[in-house]
Amino acid sequence: MKKTVMMSLLIGASLFATNYSKVITHPDASKMIEKDLLAPPKVFIMPAGCITKDPDAIARGKYIFNNLNGKKAKKNPPAGLSRKTKNGKPKQYGNCVACHNIEGAKGAGNIGPDLTNYKENFIDSGGRDHQFVFQKIADARIDNPKTHMTINLTTKLFTPREICDIASYIVAPK
Ligand code: HEC
Question: Which of 21, 85, 137, 142 is deepest in the core (most CB within 10 A)?
Answer without folding.
Answer: 137
